[in-house]
Amino acid sequence: MKIKDVMTEDVLTVPTGKTLKETAQLLADTGISGLPVTDDDGNVVGVISEADILFKERSPDKRRGGSFAWLFFPDTLENEAKLDARTAGEAMSSPAITIGPDRPVGEAAAKMLDEAVNRLPVVDEEDNLVGIVTRADLVRAFTRSDGEIEAEIRKELIGRTFWLQPADLDVVVRNGEVTVGGVVDTKSDAELLPELISQVPGVVSVESTLTWKVAANVH
């Protein structure tokens, strides 16, 4: 499953010059927790979230100050800028962490966890904004039925990745738990296929009894 299969294409954005008050109102009215921020050319330059706006509500006496604060708290200057922000461009988190529409869903999950973000703007090869993917989108992908999971394993992995007939291998999916068996070409294929299956959205576990042709010819 790829990002384009789960992303939202109709993306609401805010320009860098939009006032912070207007931006907060937009988030409140739409029930969206974060939005891509675009420059005058429409390029994504950052993301503004509820967390960015909450810096404005932070008590001044909670600022980590002092002449040498920057030596010990590298994010202090950025946080101070958010405290003084008046526009979306000044308050946003930048640069924007983006992903391409043809990247696998698992890559988006890894990025969100590694970067501690809740959403990723989706951009094409020319960096044009084509959608947005959120943690909620990935959770919905994980709830797919066993039939949908099996169909992806057979079509995308067995058929298109390993160039086998989808019916050549035994694949059973129950409650997201996958068992796969049969004969593949090489030992590396037998090791790689279960690993790739484990990355399919909705898969909980993988049990493999795969063998490979070299071993099969011995018996």
Keywords:
21% strand; three-stranded mixed beta sheet; 219 residues; single chain; 11 helices; alpha/beta; elongated; 41% helix
What does it look like?
The protein has helices at 3-6, 20-30, 50-54, 69-72, 76-83, 88-91, 105-115, 135-142, 146-161, 187-198, 213-218; strands at 14-15, 34-38, 44-49, 119-123, 129-134, 170-174, 177-184, 205-212. By secondary structure, the chain is an alpha/beta fold. A three-stranded mixed β-sheet has the order 1-2-3. Strands 6-7-8 form a three-stranded mixed β-sheet. Strands 4-5 form a two-stranded antiparallel sheet.
Order of helices and strands: HEHEEHHHHHEEHHEEHEH
Amino-to-carboxy terminus distance: 37 Å
Question: Helical percent range?
Answer: 40-55%
Shape: elongated
The strand count comes to 8
Portion in strands: 15-25%
The helix/strand class is alpha/beta
Give the radius of gyration.
23 Å
Largest sheet: 3 strands, mixed
Side-by-side strand order of the widest sheet: 1-2-3
Residue runs with pLDDT of under 50 for 5 or more positions: 68-74
Global mean pLDDT = 86
Number of helices: 11
